Amino acid sequence: MSHHLFLLSPTDIPIYSLAHQSTKSTTAQTGGTLSSNLPSWSTAPFSGTLTALSGAQSVGTTSSQNGGAPKIGAGQDRHVIQMIANASLDVVEEMQVNSSAMYLKSIDKFNEWTVSAFVTAGNMRFILLHEGKNEEGIRAFFVEVWELYVKTAMNPFHRSDRAIRSPVFDARVRASAKKYL
Amino acid sequence: MSTPRQYKTIGEDLWKSRTEKINAELFTLAYGSLVVQLIQDYEDYAEVNKQLEKMGYNIGVRLIEDFLARSALGRCADFKEVGEVVAKVGFKSFLNIAPTVIHHPSPAAATTAQQPPSSAQRSSLLPSQNAASQAQAHNQPGASFILTLDENPLAEFVELPEGALPAPGNAQGDDTPGGLWYSNILCGVLRGALEMVQMQCEVVFLSDVLRGDETTEIRVRLVRYLEEEVPVGDD
């Protein structure tokens, strides 16, 4: 099961992104493409969507923001992932108005991807794309990422509109992802 | 004079009795934004280092008055004692940290006193001879001590950007070009404070954990005593 995490600043600038392959699920674990992540019996119904998405790649490229460089393979549908994450931001804003909680659980669904969001007090958005349901694990993961982010934000050299390049932060987020996802 | 243990107690008492303390995070963030602003203004890390040291100097010449008034300590017998007081009383009462200190007697005096040079200052000479020649060695210009800071409240949560690290391949040294000594203000404070008690010192950073080194070390080296500045009694 793969997960894609995006951290976005209040001004919608991507600060950090991560693609993570979970070792906990039972579905196929090979690297990136969408079809390998789907159970084999559902490939046929989704193949139409897949080609449509691949065909829409050029559209996706122009409309999606190019955040961090792709971390793990999945070159082609990386743009799709980013497009889905971007599209969910509108939903995040809608839900922010209604709910004062930080963890917004799953706010959007796109084919097999569920989008969960976490909004901090400073309006930083953490968007996680995942398959399946793992609310408690994701909540714990978001809280830990939040703590790591706060420590990074305390760094006087960090600017809220610049990408987080710290290798320490990266290592810790990966470790946290391995633990909870 | 007082033993190291007594200095430790004095330092702790001073820290506890101090009524106006500042929130540590506020202090760290204020210093951090100061450094970042200096970097934006000067755009040259060597210049920023120099400015931090100058600012520290201005702080130091004022801080020493507060320190002497509160601690009521007398004159130190030799430079070694200066190191002990700075580490155990000074740093403790202002920053609540206790750096370890290693003394190095003056290289010139060590050879003339015919003592095996050792930083631990133990010798097989007779106690009286030992103390006298040690005191002499520690009083000579050129004597130094190294403070090792285990924790640095100025640098909590700080990670230096790439440009502020020293250029790769450079040996560890205090004049590495291109590097930022983040806590350089401390060097200025020490230099200013010691100058007001008639010791001209050279204070530099040797290593810093922010730069990837193992420890954070400051070396204080006595250049000379400012004898002529001492107000002579009219006799």
UniProtKB/TrEMBL annotation, chain A:
Q: Which GO terms describe its biological process?
A: endoplasmic reticulum to Golgi vesicle-mediated transport
Recorded hits in InterPro entries, A to Z, give: Longin-like_dom_sf, Sedlin
Single GO cellular component annotation?
cytoplasm
- Supply the name of the protein: Trafficking protein particle complex subunit
Its lineage opens with:
Eukaryota, Fungi, Dikarya, Basidiomycota, Agaricomycotina
From TrEMBL, chain B:
**CDD domains (alphabetical):** TRAPPC3_bet3
Q: Where is this region: Disordered?
A: 108-133
**Organism this protein belongs to:** Serendipita vermifera MAFF 305830
- CC terms in the record's Gene Ontology section: endoplasmic reticulum; Golgi apparatus; TRAPP complex
**Entry annotated with the keyword Endoplasmic reticulum:** yes
Q: Which domain of life is it from?
A: Eukaryota
Matches recorded under SUPFAM superfamilies: Ligand-binding domain in the NO signalling and Golgi transport (SSF111126)
UniProt cross-references to Pfam families, sorted A to Z: TRAPP (PF04051)
A GO BP entry is:
Golgi vesicle transport
Kindly state which keywords UniProt assigns to this record, in alphabetical order: Endoplasmic reticulum, ER-Golgi transport, Golgi apparatus, Transport
Q: Does the keyword Endoplasmic reticulum apply?
A: yes
**Any transmembrane segments, and where?**
none
Subcellular locations according to the entry: Endoplasmic reticulum; Golgi apparatus, cis-Golgi network
Record family assignment = Belongs to the TRAPP small subunits family. BET3 subfamily.
Q: Supply the name of the protein.
A: Trafficking protein particle complex subunit BET3
